[in-house]
Amino acid sequence: MLGQRIRAKRKERGKSLSQLSALTGLTASFLSQVERDVTEPSITSLRKIAKALDVPIFYFLLDTEEYSPVVRAENRKVLRFPHSHLMFELLTPDLNRQMEMMMATLEPNTSTCEEPLGHPGEECTVVLQGEMEIQIGEEVFRLKKGDSIYYYCAIPHKITSVGEEGLVFISAITPPSF
Questions:
Q1: Where are the beta strands (DSSP E) in the chain?
Q2: Is residue 134 packed enough to be buried (19+ CB in 10 Å), middle (13-18) or exposed (0-12)?
Q3: Closest Cα to residue 104, out of 82, 121, 84, 118?
Q4: How far is the C-alpha of 140 from the C-alpha of 157, rounded, in Å?
Q5: Residue 63 lies in a domain
Q6: CB 175 within 8 A of CB 120
Q7: Contact predicate 10/60, CB 8 Å
């Protein structure tokens, strides 16, 4: 299903697999396998695809359900990758607003991505559990439970769970771009 949504958006944008490959740095054969749901992309690869198609990552996971301002915990849209130590839950009803909120869970000693990545907008993150190390550009900050940080998302950033317990944090992003 993820692959079908990627293919539909690629075609809607009028891009061929080779054009998408050039925009993402991913091979056309890999993209074809993703579109056919033969393989699942890593979060880094999905971010590249979403950026190239000018949509937030969560776009590929949303249903066309009727809108409700309430998002029940059991009905959150979840983004989890195979063999990944990271899970994102969309806390806002959809991405058709000025802001997006998500909660992330990250196992100890793992990171949100392989390399620091940027995207448009501004973000505020608060740590609910565990300890976070966040690299923003060349700067590295360490946050504990209750700490928050505000930054411009265009600066490549990467979050790592440090310490003994898993990391849980909430991020508000404007405009929706994750």
A1: 77-80, 86-90, 100-106, 122-129, 131-136, 139-143, 148-152, 157-162, 167-174
A2: buried
A3: 84
A4: 9
A5: no
A6: yes
A7: no
**What pTM, to 2 d.p., does this model score?**
0.75
Whether the pLDDT of residue 95 is over 80: the answer is: no
Please give the pLDDT value at position 65: 59
The residue that leads in pLDDT, 84 or 53, is: 53
For residue 100, which of 175, 156, 15, 14 has the smallest C-alpha distance? 175
Average pLDDT over residues 87-116: 90
Same domain, 48 and 134: no
Residues 99 and 137 in one domain: yes
Q: Which residues contact 148 (CB under 8 A, 6 or more apart)?
A: 124, 125, 126, 127
Q: Would you say 47 and 119 are in contact if contact means Cβ atoms under 8 Å apart? A: yes
Q: Are 89 and 39 in a shared domain? A: no
